[in-house]
Specification:
The complex is a heterodimer of chains A (549) and B (249). With 549 residues, chain A is an alpha+beta fold. Chain A is built from 15 helices and 24 strands. Chain B has 7 helices and 11 strands. Classes of the chains: A alpha+beta (549), B alpha/beta (249). Chain A: Accepts electrons from ETF and reduces ubiquinone.
């Protein structure tokens, strides 16, 4: 029998959305002198350990939460000074786009280059100082419902379970965390958020969610080449014309740059390896000019929910809300999700606090949330950028880009048309026989690296003796269908080398899952063509330990 | 019996240690920190003695900046009763730590001090021994088992040739090795309770200890990167390379 603890609000995930909600709840409680018990559970070993983002940060929501963030020491140290956008034509050539041709949403004056991990660490300190119970190292593993079917909280995972399911020496059963309202802010493709969406059919009126896989590295570079505040975005090579995506390179503080590639997960060619695309991208002169002579410091990867407004599910369900990227509030036109995630947290806090104070009836909950959301700048911003992603997917980068320029700069997103993109990402994968394998060049160990050396830099660790957290619905399917038809694409889309097909040369192929390497990016849960892989939370504290990401 | 147990805040064992570009030290900015694993074993040993009805109170002590209160809170969540942080800018060298601990021992009068055998950052393996010398107490280092027998402490030590069992008069010093126990997880209710337990902050001046540095850190270097191997075509080529290139035969 598990023990239970009672809270007013339980929040799953200590990221921008979850911590903003927690802080705002405590601010409201202090203003109105009402005692409030708020707890945040976080599967990472510490707050910020699993946070990975570019990031160019727009401070609008932070200004609302802590107008004095500067005095409080928020780590926004590098204002954006210059925006550059390139179209890479091939491995050597590039066209720099003139400023006047860029959609307004890609102008970053007034924004900051940040480490979102460090910003979230700071938010965690603010939350604790306000009286929030923040519990890193505890994964929310299970949804709890009351008799009426209303969500009444979550249970944390058992600790100390062996791979065979037996209890090890230090076994500690999970705890039930009960709450009047439970807020889910797990980030893109949260494993509980996915179950909630299914159970309450939250996505019934939405387009399918679309995803990208972001891979990022942090580099110490030659101080002579460092231009703090320079923001570079680009598209084109090495991705082919049928594969969406783009790269970024930001000059942050301390002679460091962050560099990354986002590959849309609706790609068709199963031979494509986002990791290897990123490694070869760094050899392009536009990027190499900064990285050369530098040293790679860190590596990580995370999926991104980029379907935007049209793919946004209902966020409210009886007893709680989906927030931030767990719902899909990223603004793809700006390539930014942190400020929108934070805003969803602020709105959630205000709506939940009022509901608790009034003892709002459950039947009035969803309409109350909808009204609050629709009256917010978050809704307005997402609505105006609703066509950006679908235009690129449906019209291609050129016509789509032109559409986006006109729509964003001339009509400010107010055109009375809405483009839809109704095919799921995993269904777009084509059989391997329709393409030739891509010959990626061997990494040089200077600018490009292999997967094991990369995963090493993410400080990823999982307790070795525990059940595999990458669950196959049908254990035989990878070899029966994925291997012959798609050459088992998991070997290539996984940026951590978790999935390996061994023994193929001997004619006895078997799938090996190296779950200890998992970066918690969720790509396998998204891209498996049969949706056969289910990502569940491993023992709390496992996963990457990203510093400064 | 009152037990004093020491905890050190160190870089997490999962984190790849990185040297600062100017080689002045290891880079700890925004890096995950944790309780030194050997200290966790020390805390667990103390908690088990309390659960066995032998210990009556466990005091957790850490030396370092206020951030190390996090590790003291972890010790409190694991079962220590109260904490003491000795506030210093950076963790001082072993001898100073031992002197600070000796001053705490003089004030607290524990019958047993349990320390980790070494910290995984500096790997000095000195503090416990120095503390025993300063206090003139018996010590048993590298403990893999301990039990109380008729008022004396029986400690099994891991030594090069095997195991050695010592009987110590109390008060005594024990330093823990890896196999002494497997530390438990802190539970959520205990983490919440730990936030309310007493945690005092003391200064070296209050304890009458001067922070004198006897050594100076000159430089930190990362180990040289391993060169990739090569495949040889034949045994004779291998022998040739071992002779002429590796110069090992």
């Amino acid at each position: 029998m598990r023990e239970a603890m009672e809270f007013d609000v339980v929040i799953v995930g200590a990221g921008p959305a979850g911590l903003s909600a927690a802080c705002r709840l405590m601010q409201l409680a202090a203003e109105q002198n009402r005692p409030l018990e708020v707890c945040v559970v976080e599967k990472g070993s510490e707050v910020g350990a699993h946070i990975l983002s570019g990031a160019v940060f727009e401070s609008r929501a932070l200004d609302e939460l802590f107008p004095d963030w500067q005095e409080r020491g928020a780590p926004l140290h590098t204002p954006v000074t210059t925006d550059e956008v390139y179209l890479l034509r091939n491995a050597e050539q590039a066209v720099k786009l003139p400023d006047a041709l860029l959609p307004k949403s890609l102008h970053n004056a007034g924004n900051h280059i940040v480490s979102l991990g460090n910003l979230v660490r700071w938010l965690g300190e603010q939350a604790e100082a306000l009286g929030v119970q923040v519990f890193p190292g505890f994964a929310a593993a299970e949804l709890l419902y009351d008799e009426s079917g209303r969500v009444r909280g979550v249970a944390t995972g058992d600790m100390g379970v062996a791979a065979d399911g037996s209890h090890k020496d230090g076994f500690m059963p999970g705890m039930e965390l009960h709450a009047r309202y439970t807020l889910f802010a797990e980030g893109c493709r949260g494993h509980l958020g996915k179950q909630l969406a299914e159970r309450f059919e939250l996505a019934r009126n939405a387009d399918p969610q679309h995803y990208g896989l972001g891979i990022k590295e942090l580099w110490d570079i030659d101080p002579a080449r460092h231009r703090p505040g320079l923001v570079i975005h680009g598209a084109g090579w090495p991705l082919d014309k049928d594969t969406g995506g783009g790269f970024f390179l930001y000059h942050a503080e301390n002679h460091q740059v962050v560099v990354g590639l986002i590959v849309d997960l609706n790609y068709a060619n199963p031979w494509l390896s986002p990791f290897d695309e990123f490694q070869r991208l760094k050899h392009h002169p536009v990027l190499k000019q900064y990285l050369e002579g530098g040293k790679r410091v860190s590596y990580g990867a995370r999926a991104i929910a980029k379907g935007g407004f049209n793919a946004l599910p209902e966020m409210a369900f009886p007893g709680g809300l989906l927030l931030g990227c767990d719902a899909g509030t990223l603004n793809v036109a700006k390539i930014k999700g942190s400020h929108t995630a934070m805003k969803s947290g602020l709105l959630a806090a205000e709506t939940v606090f009022a509901a608790l104070t009034e003892e709002l009836a459950d039947s009035a909950w969803a309409p109350r949330w909808k009204a609050a959301f629709e009256a917010s700048w978050l809704h307005e911003e997402l609505y105006r950028s609703r066509n950006f992603g679908p235009a690129l997917h449906r019209l291609g980068p050129l016509a789509g880009g032109a559409f986006n320029f006109v729509e964003q700069n001339v009509f400010a997103g107010r055109l009375p048309i809405t483009l839809h993109d109704r095919q799921t990402d995993h269904a777009r994968l084509r059989p391997a026989a329709e393409f030739s394998p891509i010959a990626y060049r061997k990494p040089d160990g200077v600018l490009s690296f292999d997967k094991p050396a990369s995963v090493f830099l993410s400080n990823t660790n999982h307790e070795e003796n525990q059940p595999c957290h990458l669950v196959l619905k049908d254990g035989a399917l990878p070899l029966r269908e994925n291997l012959p038809r798609y050459a088992e694409p998991a070997q290539r889309y996984c940026p951590a080398g978790v999935y390996e097909v061994l023994g193929a040369e001997q004619g006895e192929p078997r799938l090996q899952i190296n779950a200890q390497n998992c970066l918690h990016c969720k790509t396998c849960d998204i891209k498996d063509p049969s949706q056969n892989i289910v990502w569940v939370a491993p023992e709390g504290g496992g996963g990457p330990n990203y510093p400064n990401m | 019996m009152k037990i004093l147990v020491t905890v050190k805040r160190v870089i997490d064992y999962n984190v790849k240690v990185r040297v600062k570009p100017d080689q002045s030290d290891v880079d700890l900015a925004n890096v995950k920190m944790a309780m030194n694993p050997f200290c966790e074993i020390a805390v667990e040993a103390a908690v088990r003695l309390k659960e066995a009805g032998i210990a009556t109170e466990i005091v957790a002590v850490s030396v370092g900046p206020s951030a190390c209160q996090e590790q003291i809170r972890t010790a409190l969540a694991l079962g220590a009763d109260r904490g003491i942080q000795i506030d210093t800018a950076e963790p001082p060298e072993s001898l100073v730590v031992a002197k600070l601990l000796a001053a705490v021992v003089a004030a607290e009068q524990p019958e047993l001090v349990i320390l980790g055998k070494q910290s995984i950052d500096a790997d000095n393996n000195q503090t416990g021994q120095m503390l025993a010398a300063l206090l003139d107490w018996p010590q048993a280092t590298f403990a893999s088992a301990l039990a109380l027998q008729e008022g004396r402490l029986e400690v099994t030590r891991e030594i090069d040739g095997g195991l050695q069992t010592l009987s110590l008069a109390l008060p005594a010093i024990v330093t823990t090795d890896l196999r002494l126990n497997e530390p438990r997880y802190a539970s959520l209710p205990n983490i919440m309770k730990a936030k309310k337990k007493l945690l005092e902050v003391r200064t070296p001046a209050e304890l009458g200890v001067a922070l004198k540095a006897h050594t100076r850190l000159l430089k930190v270097e990362a180990p040289a990167e391993r060169q990739g191997g090569i495949k040889v075509g034949s045994v004779s080529e291998l022998v040739e390379k071992l002779k002429s290139e590796a110069k090992v035969i």
